[in-house]
Specification:
Layout lengths: L6 E2 L7 E6 L4 E7 L3 H18 L3 H17 L1 H12 L3 H19 L6 E3 L5 E9 L2 E5 L5 H14 L3 E5 L6 H11 L7 E3 L6 H7 L5 E5 L2 H12 L4 E5 L4 E5 L5 H13 L9 E7 L3 H14 L18 H16 L3 E4 L14 E4 L6 H4 L6 E7 L2 H8 L7 E5 L3 H8 L6 E4 L18 E2 L4 H6 L2 E9 L3
Parallel strand pairs: 6-7, 6-9, 7-8, 9-10, 11-12, 11-16, 12-15, 14-15, 16-17
Antiparallel strand pairs: 1-2, 2-3, 4-5, 5-19, 10-18, 13-14
Helix pairs in contact: 2-4, 2-6, 3-4, 3-6, 4-5, 7-8, 9-10
The structure holds nicotinamide-adenine-dinucleotide.
């Protein structure tokens, strides 16, 4: 997303960024557009805080549970604010808050432990783990709290301190979250900085940062990796996806249609691991497209705070323009909109839930990441053809296989080149599992113990047995 569209606010008391409400397109609030000296000061504070924070794992566990309590208690303020700036239905914002709380508690209890290391010689070696130091996190606008917590929970549990930058499109709930957590954490352990670029680039290249963990597009991920190379900071990159769902010929279309639809359209399709392409056996293709179109027509689209809303607006104007562009190009390439295909009249960034059929496989809505409420349904002849098409993009985040025989579906799962494959559903992640994309979808592992170790440095004490 090249152009953050937050507008510059009135001067006085430092530069400000205006945050827009995507349901209306109107100004919602402002945050500081922080400058290099403020970033330096935040990183300095993270260094000072690290000395104490790294020293006492038991105190960290207590503090992280207290932070989780504070976040849970603030849910009634955090969730509506998140909905107003991000657009998602209120229940989904509450789910983000709940996930943040659960993640803090999960990592608070994880202990990296120590492991004996031996190759059979009479040597006593022990592997221990050390925190890295002050680390940086850069987060996108689709799940601001949930993705922030995926970064700060393992990092803080590991004994690191963190400076975290939310997207300029969605900084409000993150700032409130930081304030809420600061009641439970020592000063400087977690600092939220806000502002437009080049704030993220400065953070990624800052010599005081030991690890940069980034979630966002592959293009920005490349820039972040380049910036971090200046200080040889470690990088973890969670990037885009173009997940394929392969339907096998024994699939019961009506039985799976609801699940498949929501796996693609939840959060208005703005999910890295949403279903972004459906491959159906050619004889089933129109039935699948029709079943999904029925769900698309009946989905309630509206402001996230309106009771009953199932699909909110797209988060921001550049993203809406991209979705319009991809859809128009597909239609120009010969695709047919089974339903939707256009933005909705009126204020705000609303796009009609769209099912596309007869889409040429080279159309960007198939080959790239649409990241919006638009889903192409593509026919295949043989299963080999479907697997090859699913693996044909540069992405490798997730995928799914759907059919009446889960064992057969699972056999196909092993052929997909990606980090997670779901059978007869798509997108669920447990806190305990590793989350890692292959190919251009990521570098490094988040989630579960792997996420904790990604925030630690191995340290081996090696001595002969008799010593
Ligand atoms: P983006 O790459 O445009 O921005 C992500 C973050 O990087 C924002 O905070 C942005 O301000 C910041 N940024 C922009 N330029 C930067 C630079 N040069 N240096 C450092 N930081 C910079 O992504 P987005 O549009 O906010 O989010 C959508 C993308 O995120 C999609 O591609 C989606 O698939 C991906 N995503 C991936 C995951 C995952 O876990 N794999 C999860 C959610 C979203």
């Amino acid at each position: 997303m090249p152009t953050p569209l937050a507008r510059r606010g009135p001067r006085g008391g430092g530069e400000r960024l205006t945050v827009l409400d995507p349901a209306t397109g109107e100004a919602l609030d402002e945050v500081p557009d922080q400058q290099p000296d403020e970033l330096d000061a935040a990183i300095e504070r993270a260094h000072e805080a690290w000395r104490g924070w790294r020293a006492d794992p038991a105190a960290r566990t207590t503090a992280l549970h207290a932070a989780a309590d504070a976040v849970a208690a603030a849910g009634a303020d955090l969730a509506p604010l998140l909905t107003r700036e991000q657009g998602k239905p209120l229940a989904e914002s509450h789910a983000e808050v709940a996930r943040t709380v659960a993640r803090l508690r999960y990592f608070a209890e994880l202990d990296p432990g120590t492991q004996p290391v031996t190759d059979g010689r009479p040597v006593r070696s022990e592997l221990r783990w050390r925190p890295l130091g002050p680390v940086a996190a850069i987060v996108p606008w689709n799940f601001p709290l949930q993705l922030a917590s995926a970064k700060f929970a393992p990092a803080l549990a590991a004994g690191n301190t963190m400076v975290l930058k939310p997207s300029p499109f969605t900084p409000l709930a993150s700032r409130l979250l930081g304030a809420v957590m600061s009641a439970a954490l020592p000063e400087g352990v977690l600092t939220i900085v806000t502002g437009r670029e080049p704030l993220g680039a400065r953070l990624a290249s800052h010599p005081g940062i030991r690890h940069v963990t980034f979630t966002g597009s592959a293009a920005t991920g490349r820039a972040v990796a380049g910036a971090a190379a200046a200080s040889l900071a470690r990088v973890t990159l969670e990037l885009g996806g173009n997940d394929a769902a392969i339907l096998l010929e024994d699939v019961e279309v009506e039985r799976i249609a609801d699940r498949l639809f929501w796996a693609a359209f939840r959060n208005c399709g703005q999910v890295c691991m949403a279903v972004k392409r459906v491959y159906a056996p050619a004889p089933l293709c129109s039935q699948v497209a029709e079943a999904l179109a029925q769900r698309a027509k009946s989905a309630v689209v509206g402001a996230g705070l309106d009771p009953g809303t199932q699909l909110g607006p797209v988060n921001n104007a550049p993203q809406l323009a991209r979705i319009e562009r991809y859809t128009a190009r597909a239609l120009a390439d010969g695709a047919r909109a089974v339903t939707g295909g256009h933005r909705l009249e009126g204020p705000g960034y609303f796009f009609a839930p769209t099912i596309l059929a007869e889409v040429p496989p080279h159309s960007p809505v198939v080959t790239a990441e649409q990241f919006g409420p638009v889903l192409p349904v593509l026919p295949y002849g043989s299963l080999d053809e479907a697997v090859e098409a699913a693996n044909s993009t540069g992405f490798g985040l997730g995928g799914s296989v759907w059919g009446s025989d889960p064992d057969r579906a699972e056999a196909v799962a092993g052929r997909l080149e990606c980090g997670t494959v779901w059978i007869n559903h798509h997108g669920e992640l447990s806190l305990a599992q590793p989350f890692a994309g292959t190919k251009e979808s990521g570098v490094g592992i988040a989630g579960g113990p792997w996420g904790l170790y990604g925030n630690l440095s191995p340290f081996v004490v090696h001595r002969p047995q008799e010593a």
